[in-house]
Amino acid sequence: MSRLKRTLAQIWPRAAIIAVIVLLWWAVYATGYWDRVLLPSPARVWRALWGNVTGPTGLLVAAERSILRLFLGLAAAMVIGTPIGLAMAAWKTAQRSVGSLMVGLQALPSIAWLPLATLWLGITEKAVFFVVVMGALPAVAIATAASVRLVPPTLTRAARTLGARRWDLYGHVVLPAAVPGYLAGLQQAWALAWRALMAAELLVAGARGLGHFLARAGALWQTPLMLATMVVIMLVGIGVDFLFSLVDRRVRARRGLVVPA
Amino acid sequence: MDDGVDVSNVRPLRAVPDTGPAASKLSLRAVTKSYRQSSGEIVPALADVSLEVAAGEFVCLIGPTGCGKSTLLNLVAGLDRPDEGEILMDGQPIVGPGPDRAVLFQDPALFPWMSVVENIEFALRLSGVPKAERRALAMHWLGQVHLASFAHAQPHEISPGMRQRAVLARSLACQPEVLLADEPFGALDAQSREVLQRELQSVWLETRNTFVFVTHNVREAVFLADRVVLMSARPGTLVAEHRISSPRPREFEDVLLAKVVVDVHDHLLKEVEGVVAPEEDARPDLA
To answer: Dihedral angle at the C-alpha atoms of B195, B199, B201, B205, nearest 10 degrees?
Structure first.
């Protein structure tokens, strides 16, 4: 297949699903069944989108702030969660104690931390950051532990017979072998962090990001802008997912593992 | 006279070896091992196995599935400890795995994130070879197994036979004193298997490592070994052995060798029939 054909094969299904949704939306709008303020036309949403992209209070600035928060929160969750996961994989006692705690924390929607976080840290950036970290941390820890535990024993046995001990065994065999599983965990973790962040920004006034943008548009009954912001939140998600899947593909292809379509 | 089989070589094995000749590389003395299954039931894997392997000797262990061949190999590799008895190398007890005993597993355990040559360099690093010498040494051994042109391929990009050759090169590069192989060619197609058996023979004729090779293929055992040792089924124990004195290099086309295969096969079949008695309690004492 030529390069052009492959690019087209990537693009047309995406374009098609957007077209279908916009058409359905427009058709519902055209019936006039819903109030035009509650359900604005695709064209008005499009104008709201373009009209608010740039400027100091525009969508771009808000998206930038939110993306920065996402990556800072995710990085913190990785720094804290990865060692926790490694300990869970290494010691049964850690798995039983901290492991159970992580499962519990994962069951708790991280936005549930917000009331407490605002009491502890004030209605601040810190409280938002805390909620994002708590959203991603359990997923990172659990995925780390699982990916280390699932390293094929044939590889560790082979390494041991070659004379690998302690750091050589862990750093040069177990950890590299766990990378594909860890990456899969990160893909889950960032999505959880992103949801936590949007929820926190919606609720914490002054945390100027996409979530806050949405809350403000809601307060002003600007439905076109609300829908436009939601589109941007999804677009950012698709973009971040694309970045992670690029890394994931490279790693998997190099090892001859199945590359997801 | 030169047909390779001398009936006087055929003897039941159970006789406990005397303190052993000084040249013994590996000594297994009354080794017993059992495993606890998840149900809690204890399954004996090896019962009272004694075996002496001379330095530079090529020994093939054959036996039915589940006879504890792999268990025996894991014990010698140091990946597991015997319940009773002792395993010595050069008179010293084996306490853990180490690069002095290389293992070829049935599943060629190459590290998938390293290229073929990086796999060998990693093994050399673990053996303490200085960085400057690793690449040249790795390429030398890849050349020995005719894999030099695939040095920079990733393991998944080469065929299973090539992967097993790369593992062989990785094992040899560390210059182990003993090579242990657990049906390394078992998963290959007949043709690759034969090619690899020939290559193994020619490489071994140069290196002359002490070799313990587990297989269930009599033809493979006769082609490669100085001595073929038969194991019985669960719990595994050594039942009989057969010396193969045919000159090397051996050829599969050699009619005389083919005759040895038939002889060993017949001999082994008899032993298996003797072992697999109709009733467990009626099992003949093979001592």
So the answer is: 160
The candidate with the shortest Cα–Cα distance to A63, out of A247, A246, A243, A240, is A240
Of B99, B154, B157, nearest to A163 by CB-CB distance is B99
Specify the pTM: 0.81
> With the C-alpha atoms ordered A79, A81, A84, A88, is the resulting torsion angle positive or negative?
negative
Read off the pLDDT of residues A20-52 as tens digits, 9 standing for 90 and up: 999 999 999 999 888 888 899 999 999 999 998
Q: List Cβ<8 Å contacts ≥24 apart for A238-244.
A: A240/A67, A240/A70, A240/A190, A240/A194, A241/A187, A241/A190, A241/A191, A244/A183, A244/A186, A244/A187, A244/A190
Identify the band that residue A1 occupies on the pLDDT scale cut at 50, 70 and 90. Answer: low
For chain B, the residues whose C-beta falls within 8 A of a C-beta of chain A are 77-79, 96-99, 101-103, 105, 107, 109, 111-113, 122-123, 126-127, 154-157, 170, 174
Distance between first and last Cα of chain A? 16
Among chain A, residues having any CB pair with chain B shorter than 8 Å are 154-155, 157-164, 168, 172-173, 176-177, 179, 254-257
Using an 8 Å CB-CB cutoff, list chain B residues near A183. none
How many other β-carbons are positioned within 10 Å of the β-carbon of residue B195? 15
Q: What is the pLDDT of residue B217?
A: 87
Which residue in this structure is represented by tokens 């708790």?
A108
CB-based contact B27:B210 (threshold 8 Å)? no
Q: What is the pLDDT of residues B74-114, one digit of tens each?
A: 999 999 999 999 999 998 899 899 888 999 988 889 999 99
Q: How many angstroms away from the CA of A145 is the closest CA of chain B?
A: 20
The mean pLDDT of B29-36, rounded to a whole number, is 88
Residues, chain A: 261
CB neighbours of B146 closer than 8 A, spacing ≥ 6? Answer: B165, B199
Beta bridge pairs of residue B58: B211
Cβ neighbors of A259 (< 8 A, separation 6 or more) are A249, A252, A253
Q: What is this model's ipTM?
A: 0.81
Question: What are the Cα distances from residue A248, in Å, to A211, A255, B30?
Answer: 28, 11, 51
Minimal C-alpha gap between B61 and chain A (Å) = 20
Whose structure tokens read 């589940």? B66
Can you tell me the distance from the alpha carbon of B5 to that of A149, in angstroms, rounded to the nearest whole number? Answer: 50
